[in-house]
């Protein structure tokens, strides 16, 4: 459980709350996006004027997980210090630190994704995952990780969480997410479990439309409820609600709009707070997402989001200040309700010690940076952890006829059918690392990356070409093709094209979705590597040739011949 506030911290909270104007209180319930400010981000004069008009309580910094890591740690730390100096009240800085601090900041350590961590299935590694995310993150200015993901992958077609969760088993997800969270919070970084009441049941994307978690009450408590209760009992400091409806609790006919958790008092207050006992900060998911925009007018969306029990609204836009001021004056938002949220935000700040930043905005709890990284010993430990998880996560899902490992003495010429192209002209170049590693072994590598005419491979065979092995590596980044994680477009055509060949037994290697066998059931062998994390790719190639073992255990039912997640047997546990 999270420690209680000291008397000094509690007094700071109450003193600070009492000193705030209405507009300053409203600001504490809004999180702004530092990368979207209407001027150059480090313009001190413009920042001071902005924060005077819009006294926000927290900023999102770093690259978004649906895009890519960006920037240097020292730049973010300097930026955070500058903002702390200017702000009247101490700020929180959040980021998408889902796969280590390097998933938001390019110069820091990126770990294999959560699904890779689940394949390694080791609580001690999960704790270290959280610990080094916190040490690197706090050194770079972050105090709040919008992580770990506590969703469950119960629908293989879900396009959002794929490798961003800990698999399809609630017990494993609870164990590992709890360990990641403790690692973060023991080292000065607030964790945020997400996305309540749980993504991964729908085949659609909440960035586009309100999605549905269609489990029954009993199924929900045995799955998502079990993970959520564990996180709450272990003391998670914040929870993110998603634009996800939960029909067993917040019903409605088909003619009515589904009610996302981000506007549902029954889900956010009734279930999360009252029934499950969560006392920390509730943060909404981004309010520029389609699953939220459909709810109603801007004013209605914002007031409903706040009134349902949300403490901090993520990216509502600065119009939020005026809407909330009017709502308070009209009595549609009560001051007691506003004060309750502000108090929770200030308590989080006190727990994290951000009220102790010095006059220059420096954080006394942050580990110093050296050449944009942690001090050498800690930096080495972070990198070793990254490699250890890579070694432990690579999973051999199917190996009919013992195709793998390949014999390095007799494997000289190989075919690579690249499944990394979704539309004409759009390839993901990072897949080249895989090809370069094969060539570095002295192999002759033939590449098929154009799939018209479909019979090209068979034409090559008729000319006498034979390959000692054929690989079908697949990669599609999150939102690389909006609304799907599957091979689509040109990548789907590649699957069609390779089946025209008569002499190959393709070895599938997924650096993305773990469910490639759903679209390529004819594969005799499949390896799940979960990401193009550099060391994972290197170790995957070594595993192909038997130089390192496959150590991962699939965290989802990746082979359709093994059946799919069956919720009927779940029992009521909460």
UniProtKB/TrEMBL annotation:
Region: Disordered, residue numbers: 555-574
Q: What is its EC number?
A: 3.2.1.52
Q: Which InterPro entries does the entry link to? A: GH, Glyco_hydro_3_AS, Glyco_hydro_3_C_sf, Glyco_hydro_3_N, Glyco_hydro_3_N_sf, NagZ_Beta-hexosaminidase
Is the keyword NAD assigned to this protein?
no
Residues in Glycoside hydrolase family 3 N-terminal domain copies: 22-348
Under catalytic activity, the entry for this protein gives: Hydrolysis of terminal non-reducing N-acetyl-D-hexosamine residues in N-acetyl-beta-D-hexosaminides
- Provide this UniProt record's keywords sorted from A to Z: Glycosidase, Hydrolase
One of the protein's GO biological processes: carbohydrate metabolic process
PROSITE patterns to which the protein is assigned, alphabetical: GLYCOSYL_HYDROL_F3
**GO MF term set:** beta-N-acetylhexosaminidase activity
Per the record, the domain of life is: Bacteria
Say if the entry is tagged with keyword Transmembrane helix: no
Family indicated by similarity: Belongs to the glycosyl hydrolase 3 family.
Identify the PANTHER family for this entry: BETA-HEXOSAMINIDASE, BETA-HEXOSAMINIDASE-RELATED
By what name is this protein known?
A: beta-N-acetylhexosaminidase
